[in-house]
Amino acid sequence: MHIEHVLHQGSGERNEDCLIIDRNIFGVFDGATSLNGACFDGGLSGGAMASAIAGRTFQRNDGPLGGLAARANDSILDGMKRRGVDVSLRCGLWSTSAAVVRLTDGGVEWFRTGDAQVVFVGEDGDFRVAAGREDHDYPTLSMIRERGRHHPDVQGLIETVRLGMNRNYGVLNGEREAENFFLTGLEPADNIRAVLLFTDGLDIPCETPQRRKDFSGLVDAHRKLGLSGLRDHIRSLEAADPDIERYPRFKRHDDMAAIVIHF
């Protein structure tokens, strides 16, 4: 078994993503900046707090993945309450997406919530996305493409979509409703050549937003370039579009956390 991993800060002040690699458990976590901009513990955003808490909880590796997710969710709630966060103001909640796998004798257990991804690549190069779904950011990215990142309507739509967390899509943010969006499964070990876990900072920029993301280009680019090469390719495309005119996205460079497990 061979492991590749990347943890790379985007254009923000701090990296809100994190990853864990510990014996047979691997995870990536994509913290989302609280829309009220509040910071804690020496300047950490709510997203950074949430992703770190979730990573530490899963790293304990002492129960079912869904149970660890519920415990992480509760720990995020406890962390907010201990720091005086008003949890009734939903746009200020700490939140994180998560993608976690655990290797077992029977195959690969997986957990997902939010827009962090798990992709299984077969011996013949085909791939399967664990619990593929529509991208909840598709409407916002479409508006950015049509009107520009700084159009006043964009911020309003960002807030509307954020309020859809654990109503239309899942995140770990301390809300009990988060458990309704937990996605879990077991992938048989037969025919798995590699497992890719990544936050959406690893998505290859595209000019037209996709309602359902197509990861064929990402899987092919990783096969040709490796994970570090794929990171560099993405950063070069973003750097060539500094004003966010060609590739619709929320910031010049997003944080990036990714792990590839080769068998």
List the helices and strands and how they pair.
Layout: E1 2-8, E2 17-22, E3 25-32, E4 39-40, E5 44-45, H1 46-59, H2 65-82, E6 95-104, E7 107-113, E8 117-122, E9 127-129, H3 138-147, H4 152-162, E10 183-188, E11 192-198, H5 216-239, E12 256-262
Antiparallel strand pairs: 1-12, 2-3, 3-6, 4-5, 6-7, 7-10, 8-9, 8-11, 11-12
Helix pairs in contact: 1-2, 3-4
Structure in a nutshell:
This protein is of the alpha+beta class and about 260 residues long. The protein has helices at about 45-60, 65-80, 140-145, 150-160, 215-240, and strands spanning about 1-10, 15-20, 25-30, 40, 45, 95-105, 105-115, 115-120, 125-130, 185-190, 190-200, 255-260. The strands form three sheets. The chain has a five-stranded antiparallel sheet with strand order 1-12-11-8-9, covered by helices on one side. Strands 2-3-6-7-10 form a five-stranded antiparallel sheet, with helices on one face.
